[in-house]
Every structure is written in C-alpha cells, then in structure tokens.
Amino acid sequence: MRRGLSLVLALIAAAAAFVPSSALAQASETAVKAAFLPRFARYVTWPAAAVPKNDDPFVLCVIGDDPFGGALDQAARSQSIDGKRIIVRRMGTAAGVDGCQVAFVGGTPSQPVGQLLAAIGRKPVLTVTDARGGGQRGLIHFSIVGGRVRFFIDQAGAERRGLTISSRLLALAVGVRQ
Amino acid sequence: MQPASLPQDDLADLSIEELAQIQVRSASKRDEPLSAAAAALYVITGEEIESNGITSLPEALRLAPNLSVQQVDASQYSISARGFNGIQAGNKVLAMIDGRSIYTPLGSTVFWNQWWPLLEDIQQIEVISGPGGTLYGPNAVNGVINVTTKDAQETLGTLVRGTAGPLEGTAAIRHGFTLGDSGAVRVYANWHDAEGLPTGIGDPVRDAYRGWQAGFRSDFVTDSDHFTLQADIFRNNAETLPGDGARGHNMLARWSRTLSPTSSFQLQTYYDWFKRDVLLVDDSVSTMDAEGQFNATVGPHVIVAGAGVRTTRDRFVNEQNFFQLNPSSRRLWVYNGFVQDHFRMTDELALTLGVKIERSTFSGWQVLPNARLSWQPNDRNLLWAAVSRAVRTPSRIDRQLEASAFLAAAPDFDSEKLIAVEAGYRGQPSDTTSLSINGFVNFYDDLRTTELFFEDGHPFFQLRNGYKGKTYGIDGWGSAQMTPWWRLQLGFSTLWKDIDEKGEHVDLVPRNSLGNDPHWKIIARSDFEVAPRVQLSINGRAVGDIEQDPEVGSYVEAGGQLSYQLDEDVELFLAGRNLLHRTHAESNDPDAGQLARRSIYAGARARF
User: Fold this and answer.
1) B27 to A21: CB separation less than 8 angstroms, yes or no
2) Which of A29, A87, B388, B531 makes an SS bond possible with B370, Cβ 3.0 to 4.6 Å?
3) Which stretches does DSSP call E strand in B156-224?
4) Interface touch A119/B261, C-beta < 8 Å
5) pLDDT tier at B70 (50, 70, 90 boundaries)?
6) Is B15 exposed, middle or buried (0-12, 13-18, 19+ CB in 10 A)?
7) What residues of chain A lie within 8 A of the CB of B32, using their CB?
8) pLDDT grade, residue B466 (50/70/90)?
C-alpha cells in the first residue's frame, strides 16, 4: 500500500515537472460567460429598426438575477461593434427590453426564466440563457461541455425575430436548431 | 503561490473561438445571489463533491453542517437533521433524487447504500434542516435532502473516472450527446466496491459491499416546454449470505410548460421498484407516483397549487426470526393537495403562507400549515422566521409488525407530530464572505414508544405514541474567500432534547425512538489553489459523544483531496477520508455498528 502511494505521488510530481505551467491557466466560468456576451453582438445582424442610431451605444441587458457583476461591465468596455460602445443595463423585469439588443435572461424566484422569455416574446432581441438557470432556452443557451463554456443556438427562433446569426458563431455552437 | 485564474483583462484579447476553448472552473456558491428561501437551507454543489474526492452519496452529505451522518458499516449510514439519528430512530428526514422519493414507507427510512448516482452529474444537493414546508412530499419532518442531477444539456461529452485504494474502488463512465435540435441525452454506468469494516460495537458482520448502477437522463426543450425522461437500474451484492444485496430500477418523466409570462405548470410521474435480501429477510417495495403543480404570479402574489398521489406495494418475508408483517404484502396510498401564496408585502418584506392536506392509508386526513416571514432590507441581509406543522405518517412496521407471543401489532399507532418554530439570518457581510445562522425549537407529540402490556396474563410488547417533548438548537455556517487561492468554510450544529413519556407510557427501548445524537458537531473546510494546476481540499469534522448506552466517544476526523490537472482533459488525484485515526466509532447501534476507518485512494478523471 505505502509503496503504491509513493509511486502515485512520484508520478504526479514527474508529470508536474514536464508540463509547462502557463499552458493551462483556468478562468472562472462566470468571467468567460461575461466575456462571451458582448462578443455575440458582433456576429448577429439586427433588423434596421433595432440597430442603435447615430452615436447611440449597443445595449446589453441583464434581466433578473445578475450572476456576472463587475465582470460584465469590464467585458463590455473592452469591446465595440462598428465603432459603437456597448453599455450594460440591469433590469428586474422584461418591461424595458425594447431598448436592448442583447439580453441575458436570469430568472428570479418570482419570475422564472420561461416567464421572462415569454414576456420578451418575438421582439428583435438576442436572448441569452444559461443551462445553470434551468432548461428554458433563449436564442443562445450556455452550457458546459468538456469543461468549456459552449452554447446552443436557436437559428429558427432568431429568424422569426428578424435576426441573422453569422456562420462563424453557428460553427461554435454545440447544437443549432433550424 | 499564485492565483490559478486568468485575469479578466486577458480574456478581453481572446477571439470568440479562443474563448470557447478555455477550460473553466465552475462557478461556486459565492458567485450567486443570496437565496431568499425562508428556511435553514444549505447547498452542496457538485463541484464541492468532486474537489473533496468523495466517492459515495452519503459521504457527500458530510459536507452539510446541518446534517448528522453516522457510518454504520461499510455501506450503511444513518443520516438525520436536528436529532433522532440511528438505524431505527432516523425516520424524520425526507430524501429525494430528481424529485423521486427514496424514503421507504416500509420502515420509514432511507437505504443510503442503494443509491449510486454518478457523482459528477450531480448539480447540487439542497439540505434543509427543519420541516420542508408546503412544497415537499410526505415525511419532511426534521429535514429534506434533495439531490438534483444536471440537465442533460449540461453533460455533453464523455467522462471517465476511476479510483483505487487498498479498501475501496470505483469506476464510472458517462457519455452525453445532443438528440435532434432541441434534445440532449446522457448515458452512464458506475461501479463501486468496498471492503468490510472492522467489528465495532455491533456484532461481527460481513459487510463488504459492491455493485453497479447504470441509467440515462434526457432533456428536451422548446420555447415553452421542458420534457425530462430518466431511468436507473442497479444491483448491489453483500457478503452476508450468498445472494444477499439489493437490486432495483426506476423511471421518471417530467413535463413543464410556460403558459404565459406569469404562469406555468409541471406534471411528473415515476415508477420505482427495489428488492433487498439481507440475512434471510427479503423485502421489496414498488412505488407509483404522479403529481402536478401550477404556478401563477398575480400582482405581488406568487401562487403555487398542486396535488399528488402515491401508491406503494410492499412485500416482507422474514425467515430469520419470528418478526413478521401482517399481512406480508400490502398496498398503501398517500394523497395530498397543497396551495401556497408568496406575498411580497413591500420591497423588503415577504410573507409565505402554505397549507398541505394529506391523507394516507394509515393516518386519515392531516392538515399541515406553515407560515414564513422574511425581511430583506438589502441585497446582503435576510432575516426570516417560520412556524410549521409536520407529521411522520405511520409505516408498515409501526402498525403491522408482530411476533407471536412477543410483539403485538399496533393498529392504533398514529402519526408522529411536530410543530416547529424557527428563525434565522442569512447574509453576505462582504463580497467574499457569507454567513447563515438558524435557531429552532421543535415541539413533538405522539413520538413512538415501545411498551409492555399484559393480555390474559401474557406480556406483550407494542409500539405506541407515548412521547411528548421538545428539542432545540442552533445551526450555522459561513464561508470566506481569504485570498484568491484560499477559501475557508466553517459550520456547526447543536442539539438539546427534552422529551418525556406521557402519563403512564413507559418506553423500553428509548434508543429506537429518540435516537443517538451528539450534542454538537463542527465542520471546517479549506480549499487551496496551490498552483495553476494543483488544488488541495481538506475537510475536517469534530463530533460530540453519544451519551446513550453503548456510549461512543467524541471524535475529530479529516479527509480531502490533492488533485493535479495533467492536461486539458485529464485530472489525477489522491484522496482519503478518516485520515487522522486508523479506526473510530460513529454509530452506537448494538447490532450493526462497525468501526469507520481510514481509507486512501488514488484516482483519475478524464473529460473530453
């Protein structure tokens, strides 16, 4: 037994010595999801009426519970779309969703994700949901696959709302609903 | 030492393809907002089970500060909240896996050694100490243990895990894939093998235990619907006698639909069957359950209403001694209906009123109301108080166990009743700390006694409802992210009991009713990110002594895991439990209690 243990320890130590440590830095799941959100907008085309006018910024909304905090504001600041800034708005209900291009929908105890999605309905908003928050899916739905943040895309739903999703984003999806 | 995270700034420069390739640490509880539940709720996350090197469901439950976990032999555990622990006495905590009750109505207990879900697929385990309130099923008296597994969409890809040590081993495989454009499925199998424990207070037994469980879960979602179908099959072998062990299978379907922005419903049904053979005692239970629930938001009110029906058919054959169930096979029914209103009176104050009406074959109609008030002045602090009534319905063993000229059946045995008064505080004093403190006084009546009476000059034992009294105590826990690479958690629970026989009732076997409970328990956990690829988790516990004869001394024990991420897919780890002593006693059961012992194992896990 003792010999077995020391063998395992020796193997672990040997493996540690051979792999360069910078090759495998991990990031927090929340930070990576926050980094994805403003980037999605770059690969989506909205109907002309829903695109911000002139110098207006793109608006990224968080409806309901916000799992991201400052990480999302930081991620939004680091990105721009066609020269337009991205700002983050947080709201408790879906009432103000008309001004949002992208909306992350987190449920609340009194308004589950499904109800918020139903309230947004067919508006031209790129809704994003998280499998951690339940099964109800927005147009983009985060999931963890093989320890990485990936997502499903509902292309049929996007088309019904007048949104076009680029093939580059579709190529990254683990599943596309057509 | 250095933090193992990529700083946020580095993420800003990555392409979207590169982001999709980054290996992530799961979000932990500290990232989530304060739970608004007006109850003593502790959540064990799947990530914590993994990082502590835990290989079985009951060992995972040791992570909850508000549970008392006693290992009885190599596979059996007795687990309780707020007292009444013990193989016979531990009948007041409801346990469920994905909405399916694993609390058996035959003997009012949970056979923890039967259930081997793939631990990596567990989303979380909610542990409520105190009555479950309106929304949980029957027998949620002292607590609820609610295991939920991940949605199949969250378990795509392949996972392989193996652990091996001189005393135990496990192996597991799972594969998840998408099905059509709206579905996902995972299929899994796992195997476990544990050597027997050294003889303790109880008789020598051959308690080595091995077996397997396999199954699947599928989830299908559309704009407004979520459909889940899942099933498991298992077999466990014990060495007590040839053929001893347990086997079973179950299947569950659940459909939830969003009707409008303010309303939804859920329907669920399951079938469960298992059979156990232990030392010439064979028993089996088959369960059919159907329940429905409707949710609606009307102004400041969130209303939940529902109904359910469950029927069980059991069979009990004892060729070991003269204890028999009469009749040996019987069908039982439980019906319930419930309604709950969560009323947000102001932005800060919410009142939840709920009532459940329940009828079982043995207990007639029971009304189980509860009222919960919560005051949340800001995002960081929540105060709550609750009063609730709960009952444990009589089991077949309570009512119909008899032994000729020794034990008489108890056709009048009634439900055990509880009125619980609770209050608590939950808060996040800072961005990196969390705290929860809960106090309770439980008023019990009609608790079970084993009494002697004479009929025609012959002495008989009989189970009766002879105890009345109260228990009280405090449980609490807190966590602090001390540095980016070090997280510390502490928890405790205390318990005092003041329960006496009523009138002329005299209980001859108090251990079987009142339990064998230490007055206190403390847990401490520490998680270190030692280096970018190396994680160390240590969990310690100190448990007070059991005063009832036979006494068990207080003990301090620790376990943990050292893990190393070999490459993007593979993790190696060395883990152990009960590391501080070669053996120690946890259960004082005079028949079954064996000695828990040190176990060390090495393992590997790959995800791709």
Assistant:
1) no
2) B388
3) 157-164, 168-179, 183-194, 209-221
4) yes
5) very high
6) exposed
7) 67
8) very high
Q: Is B21 on the interface with A (CB under 8 A)?
A: yes
Q: With CB atoms and an 8 Å threshold, state whether A15 touches B534.
A: no
B10 in Cβ contact with A13 (< 8 Å) = no
- pLDDT, tens digit (0-9, with 9 covering 90-100), for B336-349: 999 999 998 998 99
Gap between the Cα atoms of B162 and B150, Å rounded: 21
A 110-129 residues inside an 8 A Cβ radius of B: 110-112, 114-119
Both tokens of B184, joined, read 């996902």
Q: What is the mean pLDDT of residues B195-210?
A: 92
Residue A112 lies in a domain: yes
- On whether residue A63 sits in a domain, the answer given is yes
Phi first, then psi, for residue B539 (nearest 5°) are -125, 130
Task: Name residues whose C-beta falls within 8 Å of residue B27's C-beta, 6 or more positions apart in sequence.
Answer: A28, A29, A30, A67, A132
- Cβ contact B27–A30 (<8 Å): yes
Q: Domain range for residue A170?
A: 27-177
| d(C-alpha B587, C-alpha B308), whole Å | 36
What is the sign, positive or negative, of the torsion defined by CA atoms of B391, B83, B39, B271?
A: negative
Total domain count, chain A:
1
Residue type, B443: F
pLDDT digits (tens, 9 = 90+) for B138-153: 789 999 999 999 989 8
- CATH number, domain containing residue A87: 3.40.50.2300
Count of A–B CB contacts within 8 Å? 198
Global pTM value:
0.86
For residue B593, report the phi and psi dihedrals to the nearest 5 degrees. -65, 120
The DSSP code for B328 is S
Q: Structure tokens of B207?
A: 């308690």
Q: State how far the Cα of B392 lies from the Cα of B369, in Å rounded to an integer.
A: 14
For B176, the closest chain A residue by CA position comes to A145
Q: In terms of CA atoms, which chain A residue is nearest residue B573? A: A12
**pLDDT at B170 (0 to 100):** 97
Cα B154 to Cα A149: distance, rounded to the nearest angstrom: 10
Please name the amino acid found at residue B69. Answer: V
Residues 94-153 of B with CB under 8 A from A: 150-151, 153
Residue for token pair 């070669």: B582
> Cβ–Cβ of B181/A16 closer than 8 Å?
no
| Distance in angstroms (rounded) separating the CA atoms of residues B364 and B296 | 30
Pairing of strands B433-455, B364-378: unpaired
> Chain A 22-51, CB below 8 Å of chain B: which residues?
22, 24-32, 35-36, 39, 42-43
In a domain, A92, yes or no: yes
| In chain B, where the domains are located | 28-607
Residues 6+ apart with CB under 8 A from B540: B523, B524, B525, B556, B557, B558
Q: Min CA distance, B232 vs chain A (Å)?
A: 21
Q: Is residue A50 part of a domain?
A: yes
Contact B163, B198 (CB under 8 A): no
Q: How far does A54 lie from chain B, in Å, by closest CA?
A: 25
CA distance B588 to B78: 11
Instruction: Give the minimum alpha-carbon distance from B516 to chain A in angstroms, rounded to a whole number.
Output: 36
DSSP-derived secondary structure letter, A3:
H
- Give the model's pLDDT for residue A13: 46
- Residue B535 scores a pLDDT above 80: yes
Question: Can you spell out the DSSP letters for B347-411?
Answer: SSEEEEEEEEEEEETTTEEEEEEEEEEEEEEETTEEEEEEEEEEEEPPPHHHHHEEETTTEE--T
Give the homologous superfamily in CATH for domain B28-607: TonB-dependent receptor, beta-barrel domain (2.40.170.20)
Task: For residues B20 and A40, give the distance between their C-alpha atoms in angstroms, rounded to a whole number.
Answer: 12
